[in-house]
């Protein structure tokens, strides 16, 4: 980055991260829509989703029922969030490394003749960056999740009677999540659904009678009124109902995912890049690596990010979308992160904590590859430089 001052370097990180965020989100969003709908669909007694048979089935039903634009439903808010997220993520990461460089060597210059930061420093800087960005992401993802899932119940208002019967069998204490998916029927009879976070789905399995009695509701047999008409509607509704802190529903899950994932993301990328440099003739730094090498490093980083603490994201998503299906949840009865995770595990086991894992890993590789390639390309060409 030449002899830029620390401030100039930070501003460039901000700008390059913004551009990378836009390209990454456009690639990622259809995968994210499918993943979210798989995670939040109702689940039958056998542990299988009642709406979709898998990612390909969900993709096809979404496109047939809503058109290709259905894969980009609710894009505006997360697109803005992605710009802000990646801008601050790269800026905070660079600033954290600058701080560590200063503490160890007495200078913040990125062009000084110093050894590269240790992997410990890289991982720590990534974790700190992710932890900070989680405060921006939680409200953005809450809006995105609610918009992405609510239309499923409108597209498929009634589920086959056999599924409804199975869902309600077993007692008055079946716990299952009725989050919107993409294109299939939703429970028709009157099974009991227990609120859960936004992405996965709790299968109808007996939990606790007391818990079910305070959180149950009867699934509608016809199209219910839409809660939200757009991002602004979600925000206003949430603020009126739950106040400012309602926008941070599920924040602990986001914090875990971003802090752990951030360390893994930057750590694996840096590790892969250094391995590429050491194995490439005439390559002295990542500036000498080919496009495919940067993209491969980024793809590995993306899979590491999502693989580290995936269950935290699943629980977080259920918590953020429970209101859409849990019409009977009384005021103050919302679960904590720990309660939501325990109920999900009791209902579906480990499988429930990893619902949507395949599609998430599939989206993370190309998305992260594009993000890092975009950032590095901007840096190589000194975009916005003097």
Summary keywords:
two-stranded antiparallel ribbon, mainly alpha, 63% helix
Question: Would you mind describing this structure in some detail?
Answer:
- A two-stranded antiparallel ribbon has the order 1-2.
- The protein has helices at 6-40, 55-66, 76-105, 119-155, 161-168, 209-215, 231-242, 251-279, 291-308, 310-325, 337-348, 350-353, 357-380, and strands at residues 174-175, 205-206.
- Helix 8 (251-279) runs antiparallel to helix 10.
- The model is unreliable at 158-221 and 328-332 (pLDDT under 50).
- The protein is built from 13 helices and two strands, in the order αααααββαααααααα.
- The protein is globular.
- The chain has 386 residues and is mainly alpha-helical.
- Helices cover 63% and strands 1% of the residues.
- The relative contact order is 0.17.
């Amino acid at each position: 980055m030449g002899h830029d001052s620390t401030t100039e370097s930070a501003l460039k990180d901000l700008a390059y991260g913004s551009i990378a965020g836009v390209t990454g989100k456009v690639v990622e969003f259809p995968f994210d829509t499918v993943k979210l709908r798989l995670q939040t669909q109702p689940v039958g007694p056998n542990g299988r989703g009642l709406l979709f048979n898998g990612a390909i089935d969900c993709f096809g039903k979404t496109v047939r029922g809503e058109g290709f634009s259905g894969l980009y439903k609710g894009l505006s808010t997360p697109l803005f969030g992605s710009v802000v997220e990646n801008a601050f993520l790269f800026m905070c990461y660079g600033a954290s490394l600058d701080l560590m460089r200063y503490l160890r060597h007495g200078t913040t210059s990125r062009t000084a003749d110093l050894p590269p930061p240790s992997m410990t420093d890289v991982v720590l800087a990534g974790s700190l960056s992710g932890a900070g960005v989680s405060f921006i992401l939680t409200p953005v993802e809450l809006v995105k999740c609610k918009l992405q899932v609510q239309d499923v119940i409108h597209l498929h208002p009634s589920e086959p009677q056999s599924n409804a019967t199975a869902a309600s069998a077993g007692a008055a204490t079946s716990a299952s999540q009725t989050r919107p998916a993409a294109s299939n029927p939703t429970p028709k009879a009157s099974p009991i659904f227990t609120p859960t976070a936004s992405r996965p789905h709790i299968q109808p399995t007996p939990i606790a009678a007391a818990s079910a009695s305070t959180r149950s509701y009867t699934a509608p047999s016809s199209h219910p009124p839409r809660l939200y008409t757009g991002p602004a509607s979600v925000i206003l509704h949430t603020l009126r109902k739950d106040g400012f802190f309602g926008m941070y529903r599920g924040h602990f899950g986001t914090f875990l995912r971003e802090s752990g994932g951030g360390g893994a993301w930057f750590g694996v990328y840096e590790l892969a890049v250094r391995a590429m440099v050491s194995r490439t003739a005439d390559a002295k730094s990542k500036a000498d690596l080919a496009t495919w090498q940067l993209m491969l490093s980024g793809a590995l980083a993306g899979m590491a990010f999502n693989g580290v603490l995936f269950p935290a994201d699943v629980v977080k998503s259920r918590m953020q979308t429970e209101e859409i299906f849990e019409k009977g949840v009384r005021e103050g009865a919302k679960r904590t992160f720990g309660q939501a995770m325990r109920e999900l595990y009791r209902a579906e086991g480990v499988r429930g904590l990893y619902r949507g894992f395949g599609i998430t890993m599939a989206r993370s590789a190309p998305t992260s590859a594009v993000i890092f390639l975009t950032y590095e390309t901007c840096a190589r060409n000194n975009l916005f430089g003097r």
